[in-house]
Specification:
The complex is a heterodimer of chains A (about 300) and B (about 425).
Chain A (H helix, E strand, L loop, with lengths): L1 H5 L25 H15 L5 H13 L6 H11 L4 H14 L5 H13 L5 H11 L4 H14 L5 H11 L4 H12 L7 H17 L4 H13 L8 H7 L16 H13 L3 H15 L4 H18 L1
Helix pairs in contact in A: 2-3, 3-4, 5-6, 6-8, 7-8, 9-10, 10-12, 11-12, 13-14, 14-15, 15-16
Chain B lengths: L7 H13 L12 H14 L22 H15 L30 H13 L9 H11 L9 E3 L11 E3 L4 H13 L2 H6 L8 H12 L16 H13 L3 H5 L2 H10 L2 E2 L16 E2 L2 E2 L2 E2 L9 H13 L1 E3 L2 E2 L6 H12 L17 H21 L4 H5 L6 E2 L4 E2 H13 L1
Antiparallel strand pairs in B: 1-2, 3-6, 4-5, 7-8, 9-10
Helix pairs in contact in B: 1-2, 2-4, 2-14, 4-6, 6-9, 9-12, 12-14, 13-14
Classes of the chains: A mainly alpha (about 300), B mainly alpha (about 425).
């Protein structure tokens, strides 16, 4: 443990954990390194010691338990109090981030440091490394959003998601980020931008017609930009033509999501028989996991029509 | 293929063992130990092993040995003694944080924790504690201080040089629906709404809290994320809907959004591989008797995971459909249950794992059982008499919003009536 090797702790009395003696509930069989480091951590936290040795101690504790919920805040205060080199801190966080890609606190900490440095130069390259490890890392994508807003880095975002979507057309995180990149800015996107998005998404759907992420993006863009869903009717029909009913060949219907959107379009037009056929096909053949749901949609729409008379 | 089996005894053994000792691998959960404790004790409650009511609804066939009343008292004392802060207004999330249990020294790095407080209260309720050892008005003052200007909630408060004294400090933790959910649960459990009506404590800003969820967290696909246009996510959606529910009815607040939300949830019930029809290849391991096992995932196009059977299933369970039946009835409960029983249940050592082939852990084990309880209840109401439900008859009913047994919720309601 570096904190022990590099510094003297003779003046500090470690504070053992009060675990309630023999009645402890769910005690963890700590290894000694962790148990002892935590005893010293409690002791320096109690007196709020801001020192080189307490900084080193936070490092050792974080490497054993990065999810500790106040050690990061303590570390930040030490860094600021000792006026440490914050660039160095970012380098260290990069190491820890790769070691614990699922950890939440790291990103919060990095945000505080980068905000203080007021310089995003290291960020996008590091984020890319992290997204290579896990292309759907929720914390990393959230952090990227914060970064883009904070430093006004919008220009790179749509092209970046294009690359990510080309790599994996089913990456929902990348689709979500694209929605943010188009609609998250103060300026409303132009008609041309929206039309381009619709074409981009249709092309992606043709590569993987069952891909829920792309379909949700497509309908999301339509709604957000105030375009009617019925604009998608002919596109949907190329992927799922229910007109031949149950005699249809599987080849005529390659996308359950397309059938769903068609049903919504027909329902909007009050064409309940057509909508019902699509829902029936979904319930009985193309999306049987959701059989109860499609039947429910059908009876709901029918009841609504009956109620109108 | 042998028929499905629900290993009551093994599961009870698994949770009892976790309560005795957790292996070193649980070190990353050290500072959220109250969560682990809640999972274990609430699981034992659902299995009918906690002696908390005179009338026992446990199927006598299973005849599981109950925890003693003496043990229950010891558990309650332990939670208070090791995790309640000197202010009696909040709990820490683990004894690992405590460095001084006297009110004279600074508590900066040992603050109250919204999730820890929820887990402590929920566990105490399961154990039928009357919560008389906490200071409820002070807890409400602390909770109000944890609310941010935008209506969301922080993990807690850290004292600073300029902000200290009673519940002063800067907010710490991610701006995340998890803490909003915990705050709404705490407020409801301790009757914060009632205290405020009587002028005994301030209330949180309910309008802002609700608006934060609806305006900031709802995504373009109809689910909920962490806010600010982040991706929709099963766990966060559960927290958002649970929060709305505990603040006064989820469906009223959601309005028209409810239809999209139900669709969003149901589309997360997914097969192991999500290939297009054209390239449809199913792994034989995912089939039982020719039927595909279909669990829930938390984000689109990710593999199913035990915990989302609860996070997403529990969200559906909070959204009413008709005649007292919830929207969970619109999912394929039987295939979801098969996924849990065949794929992620560990019938040798008990518990459930995240996905097949992993070791069981306390979180997935509890949420697996919680999801099974919700499915069984939904099937019962829908009049489904499949034999699989017979297997789950010994499980107690679960309250989806508080994530505790239905009878523990009844107990809170009794407390609220007395307060």
């Amino acid at each position: 443990m570096s904190y022990i090797e590099e510094f003297s702790w003779d003046d500090i009395t470690p504070i053992p954990q009060n675990d309630g003696g023999n009645d402890a509930i769910a005690p963890i069989a700590y290894d000694d390194d962790y148990r002892i480091a935590m005893e010293y951590l409690r002791a320096v936290m109690k007196i709020e010691e801001f020192s080189e040795r307490s900084l080193k101690l936070t490092e050792d504790v974080i490497l054993m338990n990065a999810a500790h919920y106040t050690v990061w805040q303590y570390r930040t205060r030490i860094l600021f109090a000792l006026d440490k080199d914050l660039e160095q801190e970012l380098v260290w966080v990069e190491f820890v981030g790769q070691k614990f890609p699922k950890n939440y606190q790291i990103w919060n900490h990095r945000e505080v440091i980068v905000n203080k440095l007021d310089n995003p130069i290291r960020e996008l390259p590091f984020i890319e490394v992290m997204l290579e490890i896990d292309t759907k890392n929720y914390h990393v994508w959230s952090y990227r959003q914060w970064l883009v807003r904070r430093f006004d880095l919008w220009a790179t975002e749509v092209p970046y998601t294009t690359i990510m979507i080309e790599q994996d057309v089913r990456n929902n995180s990348a689709w979500n980020h694209r929605f943010f990149a188009i609609f998250g800015r103060k300026e409303v996107p132009s008609d041309e931008v929206v039309s381009d998005e619709i074409e981009f998404t249709k092309a992606a759907i043709l590569k993987a017609p069952q891909n829920t992420s792309a379909w949700n993006y497509l309908t999301g863009v339509m709604k957000k930009s105030g375009r009617p869903l019925s604009d998608l009717e002919s596109f949907c029909l190329t992927l799922s033509n229910p007109s031949s009913g149950f005699k249809t060949q599987d080849l005529d219907i390659t996308s359950a999501r397309s059938l769903e959107v068609l049903a919504d379009i027909y329902a909007e037009k009050q064409d309940i028989p057509k909508a019902s056929l699509a829902w029936t096909l979904l319930a009985e053949k193309y999306d049987t996991v959701r059989e109860n749901y499609w039947n429910h949609r059908k009876s709901q729409a029918t009841a609504k029509i009956l109620g109108a008379f | 293929m042998i028929g499905p089996n629900f290993a009551y005894e093994r599961h009870a053994g698994f949770f009892k063992y976790c309560l005795k000792i957790l292996p070193q691998q649980y070190t990353p959960t050290d500072t959220t130990r109250l969560a682990i404790i809640f999972f274990c004790i609430s699981a034992l409650d659902l299995l009918g092993v906690i002696p908390n009511s005179e009338e026992e609804n446990l199927n006598p066939n299973f005849g599981l040995k109950k925890v003693t009343k003496d043990q229950v008292e010891k558990w309650k004392d332990w939670i208070y003694e090791t995790c309640l802060l000197p202010s009696r207004a909040a709990f820490r999330c683990s004894p690992a944080l405590a460095f001084a249990n006297d009110s004279s020294s600074k508590q900066t790095y040992d603050p109250g924790h919204t999730a820890g407080t929820y887990f402590a209260l929920a566990t105490l309720l399961i154990l039928r504690d009357d919560l008389s050892r906490i200071d409820r008005p002070a807890m409400m003052r602390w909770l109000c201080a944890c609310q941010r200007d935008d209506g969301s909630f922080a993990t807690g408060l850290l004292e600073t040089d300029s902000h200290h004294g009673e519940f002063g400090g800067e907010h710490f933790g991610e701006p995340d629906l998890r803490f909003g959910y915990c705050a709404a649960a705490i407020r409801w459990i301790i009757g914060g709404d009632l205290l405020s009506q009587r002028g005994l404590a301030p209330d949180i800003d309910v309008i802002k809290a609700r608006a934060h969820v609806l305006d900031e967290c709802v995504t373009y696909d109809g689910g909920m994320g962490m806010g600010g246009m982040t991706e929709s996510h099963g766990g966060l959606t559960y927290c958002g809907v649970g929060m709305l529910d505990l603040l006064g009815g989820a469906s009223d607040s959601l309005g028209d959004g409810i239809d999209e939300l139900v669709r969003w949830c149901l589309l997360h019930q997914t097969a192991i591989s999500d290939e297009d029809f054209s390239g449809d290849e199913q792994d034989e391991d995912d089939m039982v008797d020719g039927e595909l096992l279909v669990g829930f995932n938390g984000r689109f196009n990710k593999p199913p995971d035990t915990c989302y059977s609860f996070w997403v299933g529990g969200t559906l369970a909070m959204l009413p459909l008709q005649n007292g039946v919830s929207s969970l009835a619109l999912s394929d409960a039987r295939r979801n249950v098969s996924f849990l029983l065949y794929k992620t249940q560990n019938t040798r050592v008990g518990g459930f794992s995240k996905c097949a082939g992993h070791h069981p852990d306390a979180l997935h084990a509890y949420l697996g059982i919680a999801a099974l309880s919700l499915c069984a209840e939904t099937a019962r109401k829908a009049g489904d008499d499949d034999e699989v439900w017979e297997l789950l008859k010994g499980l107690k009913k679960l309250d989806a919003a508080l994530c505790i047994s239905y009878d523990a919720r009844q107990y809170v309601e009794d407390l609220r009536r007395r307060w």
